[in-house]
Design goal:
The chain is built from 13 helices and twelve strands. The protein has about 325 residues and is of the alpha/beta class. The strands form three sheets. Strands 3-2-1-4-7 form a five-stranded mixed beta sheet, with helices on both faces. The longest helix is centred in the C-terminal third of the chain and has 25 residues, at about 225-250. The two termini are about 15 Å apart. This is Glucokinase. It is an enzyme of class 2 (transferase).
């Protein structure tokens, strides 16, 4: 490794904002910032905007110290790690992002899925520090996930490893998923799914429906509202079965819950863990924890930088 290059840049590309951080090799952030995501014209301006922003925020002498850039993207990456295969929120198809950024900045780049980046971020600097085997779950508008085994992300043959939001759910309902499938896990176990379940229960009971957010449902659970209680019971049962199935397959020691719904804290995590304990293999039952993610929207930035750090054998010796 070039001993003069002792900085990393982590980038997390979201549908609304792109988040950046300049950090040292131990993960100490020296500067962070964000820019709006320009998704006009099929997102073709995004790569140039990344480079322009980096040059504007980091002085030339500091940029010369940057060993590499890790970029988390909301979609699958090609097996060779060079291309964003598809990113629906950005309107991207087959974008050779690695080559574009490397050519413009003259700095090495690694790409990875944003949920995988967040999983690694939580392992490196968040709720799963000291652990190398974990299941990371994001519960937001959809359900995302990242699986880390022996310190490495499980990508799979088609860069679709960890897409737990599309585990099929057996149900009498017929919920359409954004992927085109029916009754995927995220149609029930996301913030969207939670609200839809509450709405359906009120509708079936011929009770009035008032627009509500997930936090309203959790408040109603505390207020002993029977429809909210039944909604949370169904939500945690479906999610608990899915996560227990994953646990029975990969046998990790930690489940980290992130995304907007994780803000419910123990009101969600405690009933979810009880459900998981109902379904996991007995050997696992007393040997895993369910924790709230700690890093919030910085998780992907940390994880992206971490991947660059660990992808370079010569750089790995610098991890402290």
């Amino acid at each position: 490794m070039d001993n003069q290059r002792k900085k990393l840049i982590g980038i997390d590309i979201g549908g609304t904002f792109v988040k950046f951080a300049l950090m040292d090799m131990t993960g100490t952030i020296e500067k962070n910032w964000m820019i709006p995501t320009d998704i006009s014209e099929k997102g073709k301006h995004i790569p140039a905007a990344l480079c322009t922003s980096i040059r504007a925020e980091i002085a030339k002498d500091q940029l010369a110290d940057v060993l590499g850039i890790g970029i988390g993207v909301p979609g699958p990456i090609s097996p060779d790690g060079t291309t964003v295969v598809r990113a629906v929120n950005l309107d991207w198809e087959q974008v050779p992002l690695k080559e574009i950024i490397q050519q413009k900045l003259g700095i090495g780049v690694v790409l990875l899925n944003d949920a995988n980046a967040a999983a690694l971020g939580e392992m490196w600097k968040g709720a799963a520090q000291g652990k190398e085997n974990l299941l990371f779950v994001t519960l937001g508008t959809g359900v995302g996930g990242g699986i880390v085994l022996n310190g490495e992300v499980l990508n799979g043959c088609h860069s679709a490893g960890g897409e737990i939001g599309h585990i099929p759910v057996r149900s009498a309902e017929n919920r359409l998923c954004g992927c085109g499938g029916r009754n995927c896990l995220e149609t029930f176990a996301s913030a969207t799914g939670l609200v839809l379940t509450m709405r359906e229960k009120l509708k079936n009971a011929e009770e009035p429906w008032a627009e509500m957010a997930p936090q309203d449902i959790f408040k109603a659970v505390k207020d002993k509202n029977p429809y909210a209680q039944a909604t949370l019971e169904e939500f945690t049962d479906i999610l608990g079965q899915a996560l227990a199935g994953i646990m029975n397959t990969i046998d990790v020691e930690e489940v980290i819950i992130g995304g907007g719904l994780s803000e419910a804290g123990d009101d969600l995590l405690e009933p979810l863990k009880k459900k998981m304990e109902t379904y996991v293999f007995p050997q696992i039952k007393q040997h895993f924890s369910v924790k709230k993610a700690q890093l919030g929207n910085k998780a992907g930035i940390y994880g992206a930088a971490y991947v660059y750090l660990t992808s370079k054998k010569e750089a790995a010796h610098s991890i402290k």
